[in-house]
Amino acid sequence: MMLKFFTAACVTLSLLAATHGQNDELIRMEQDAVRLAASSVSDSVVQIETLGGMEKVGRVLIGTGPTSGLIVSEDGYIVSSAFNFIQQPSSILVTLPNGKRRPATIVARDRSRMLVLLKIDVDAPLSVPVAAPRGELRVGQTVIALGKTFDPGQVNLSVGILSALNRIWSKAVQTDANISPSNYGGPLVDLYGRVVGVLVPLSPQSNAEVAGAEWYDSGIGFAVPLEDVNRQLDRLKSGTDLRPGKLGFAFAGGDQLDPEAKVAVVKLNSPAAEAGLQPGDLVVSINDTPVERHSHVRHLLGPLYAGDAVRLTILRDGETLDMEATLTDVIPPYEHAFLGILPHHRGSNEGVNVRFVYPASPAAEAGLQIGDIVTQLDGEEVENAEQLRTLLVNRQPEQLVRLSWRHGSEAVDGETTLTRLPEDVPAAIPAIEPAPEQTEMPTGKIQIEIPEEPNRCTALVPESINHGPNGGLLVMLVKPGETEVDKIVDRWRAVCDERRLVLLVPEPRDGERWQPRESGYVRKVIDHAIKRFELGDQRVVVLGQEAGGTMAYIVGVRHRDVVRGIAAIDAPPPHRLRQVENEPLERLAILSATASSSTVADRIKAGIKAFRKLKVPVTVLKRDKANAPLSDDERAVIGRWVDNLDRL
Amino acid sequence: MTLRLPGSLRRIRRRAPLISTATSFAVHLAAFAVLLSLFATPASGQSFPRVNASVQEKLIKIYGAGGRRGLEAYQSGFLISNEGHLLTVWSYVLDTEYITAVLSDGRRFKAELVGADPRLEIAVLKIDASELSYFDLGEAVELQVGARVLAFSNLYGIASGNEQSSLLQGYVSAVAPLAARRGVYETPYNGNVYVVDAMINNAGAAGGVLTDRAGNLAGMLGKELRSSLTNAWLNYAVPISELRSAVQDILDGNFRSRAKQGTRRPDDHVTLSRLGLVMLPPVLAKTPAYVERVVPDSPSRRAGIQPDDLVVMVGRVVIQSRDELIEELSFIDRLDPVHLTILREQDLLEIELMAQP
Cα–Cα distances in Å, from B82 out to B78, B127, B134, B135, B256? Predict the structure, then answer.
């Protein structure tokens, strides 16, 4: 009955829109349609109040006022936004549309779509709303966002349109209606009074509960389709928390628009590995939906949860294969395999020219020597260090590999067992011997300016940078207040020349301290230096002491795609460090140096333990005295550590 | 008490220094885009230019004190009589002898302060002009949730001289008391407001006009306020019906001293000990109001309160912590009954008791 009326109203609306002069009538009808749609869902929207809990989560102060929830079953189940419970309240009260208050308990959480399922006891069936079919949603259609923040008896509303359909990896729809804590947890409804979705703050980058809340009332808001929520309702009702599902494979290169979804890495013990996925496979379709490009895969997998089954269709050597995998929430940390050589910076394309062999390494066991050229791994040709690196990424420690190399004019074959990446710094790594100048970059001390950034940055370009490609980059984040940049540069000059490293010394905008957001600036100078000085991508290190060291962690972790090493002197990782995983293609190494007398020794120790647990190699240097300036010996060790980060 | 999120887009200019001024320019642009699109949509209708013109000629741009960072020296107002009276918000802008009022045709007048009501935060000014078109407060309309509305104001001081004031459209989100709880909002006004889903309360907009789609006066745009109920910046207008009698009082020269209502504590008020309650000590910033012990032969014991009960409401106010309980009890006269709502296991119990002397 109601639906019929709406249909009639909408038809009339569109007819009226075509005629001039009757716009007042049109506006009145539109207004009536909005009110009717809102009031028809009002009985399914509840007010939620929380008691106790924290005042602050991170830097976000938590509101104390009522929030909203949506009834999803007549026996007392209610969904709401996880944002409304971030303070971890000791008690929750739900006020039904008839004014009755009921204590509520949290039954389960959806940690992918950031929802919470609540349960209250009821003595009469509750009003369950109708879900708008996802397939009928159209961009541009009018939608109304509802909450119960002001009054449990009447909804507050804001009106807008659907702005986009498949947002946040297809988990949500987007609207321009005002979405804020005054309606998080409430429904987004269409003009027919059907529920499009549940309003939640979301962010494509982060799974934190507060992520996306900074976009409130700004023309960009999200709703998780109610259809999707209903599909998971039984799982949630059983008390099972839902988590994002992972398969455990990665594509090569950062080009998300690449039309070919070619697998570069399959993580050990992951669902992808168990299903039989291999590097080099081309993912053709997922659950029978053709994969159009790289980023499409994330859209197809994004809506799935741990525990969901997925069917992958792949192309391998011209053959189409189907495989089934079950997504998981935790994949065992990835660990890189190690052969035991450093590639020469001036490599040819006929193999990997061995610059250095680690003592007692798999390579040394096999008999490799400096000057040899590695040509094959397990029968596959390797033309350069990059190719060997890609092959090793899909090997694991303790794995037996066959190796072919040239010793002078002699071809040699051998076998060896790979190990994990070493944490000790080799006692000596011979410097790259000078060669006729290959490039003609100006050397010495240079000031680097980035447009629109007020920070100062000094660069030292050593003579040795002109001796070939694949120079390294050492970014020194000064201790705030340390203004004698010239002295720093002079002290590092010898090490940088020997190790072929460009030194960058960016300074904080405010001399007193580094702001975490300045990591964006540091990233800009890194990108600038890599391009300008034609540096390699494996020996890029951020170094800092005390506050500068903590900043080094922030920069390193935020910019995993370029930073390969973090060296922190007398500095622990920051308290709230973004979650780190050991990524096969974004290798990271840590150097942590301090003395046991340091006031933050415990936190530094805890940080080392945490990174090692994630299988990130941590090199530990013992200092004689905490917070003392670096000695020449320490700089030499750090130099060798940076120099060895392109190890294979 | 005011709680914050990391900055709303529309408040970038002074409260969220993380974002550059370029974005703030974008906010201005966005405000203009709203304005432009309204005129561009077919739904704006033929009668719309007339509606706009009839409201615009009653709007006043007001300039006064301020001008320092974060304190704009301008606001909005509108004519309310044939003798040059105009209504606006009571604010620091009026805290000067030189208040300038600019009419929609660009004429400039020195405005005199006739009177103000600090509780409602309104002020009546007068300019030496007559035969101007004005809003008759007696003809103001009431709005309901879901009504389409227009907001006229000089937000961000973007219009000057005879340029027309800015126009935003939206819907009434809620009709609700501004001060739903004590101390939540930084304003003494505690009546109903129209909450609107458009950004109508930016700098300089206060004192502007909220109308229905036919241009009938409904409310006066309020000052910029942030709510700790939702953390969000509020967009609201005060209904004219709430202001009418106060304006009349000012025009009649009747200044009633209005104390802040609802925030005065009775001299002899209810305390925990007068109820015989011993609460869990404050171990956290927001320790929940758990009963630790009930004093024998006390009002609480007789009312059946037990250890481990959680006090969740006093009267109609939800209590979030032990400190809020003590605060809320202090507003109840000792001779009045105390209504507590208690959470015991999963049951909500309502209890009435009287404090002892």
Answer: 12, 11, 7, 9, 25
* Cα Rg, chain B, nearest whole Å: 24
Cα A112 to Cα A175, A226, A305: the distances in Å are 20, 15, 7
Whether residue A529 contacts residue A541, with contact meaning beta carbons closer than 8 Å, is answered with: no
From the list B165, B254, B270, the residue with the least C-alpha distance to B208 is: B165
According to the model, what pLDDT value does residue B260 have?
Answer: 41
Quick one: average pLDDT of B311-322? Answer: 86
Are B272 and B305 in contact by the 8 Å Cβ rule? The answer is no
A274: exposed, middle or buried (C-beta count within 10 Å: 0-12, 13-18, 19+)?
middle
Strand partners of residue A540: A473
Q: Rounded to two decimals, what is the model's pTM?
A: 0.75
Question: Which range, of A204-213, A310-319, B185-194, averages the lowest pLDDT?
Answer: A204-213
At A160-174, the pLDDT tens digits run: 999 999 888 889 999
Q: Which residue of A has its CA nearest to B198?
A: A178
Contact (CB, 8 A) for A53 and A90: yes
Question: A153-203, pLDDT tens digit by residue?
Answer: 899 999 999 999 988 888 999 999 999 988 999 999 999 999 999 999 988
> Does the ipTM exceed 0.90?
no
- The residue whose two tokens read 């008999």 is A367
Q: Which of A506-520, B199-213, B255-269, B318-332 has the lowest mean pLDDT?
A: B255-269
CA torsion sign for A148, A149, A151, A155 is: negative
Query: Is B62's pLDDT higher than 50?
Result: yes
Longest Cα–Cα distance of chain B, Å, equals 76
Structure tokens that stand for A316 in this block: 């391998």
- Of A128, A102, A160, nearest to A45 by C-alpha is A128
Q: Is there a contact between B43 and A23 if contact means CB atoms under 8 Å apart?
A: yes
Average pLDDT, integer, range A270-276: 93
The b/e string for A459-487 (b: 16+ C-beta within 10 A; e otherwise) is bbbbebbbbbebbbbbbbbbbbebeebee
pLDDT, residue B161, reads 87
Three-state DSSP class for residue B127: coil
Sign of the Cα pseudo-torsion (A57, A63, A65, A71, in order): negative
How far away is chain A from the Cα of B284, in angstroms, using its nearest Cα? 8
d(CA A80, CA A62): 16
pLDDT at B7 over 50: no
Tell me which chain B residues have a C-beta less than 8 angstroms from the C-beta of A178.
173, 197
Q: Which of residues 314-353 of B touch A (CB under 8 A)?
A: 318-321, 341, 343, 346-348
Q: Is B120 helix (H, G, I), strand (E, B) or coil?
A: coil
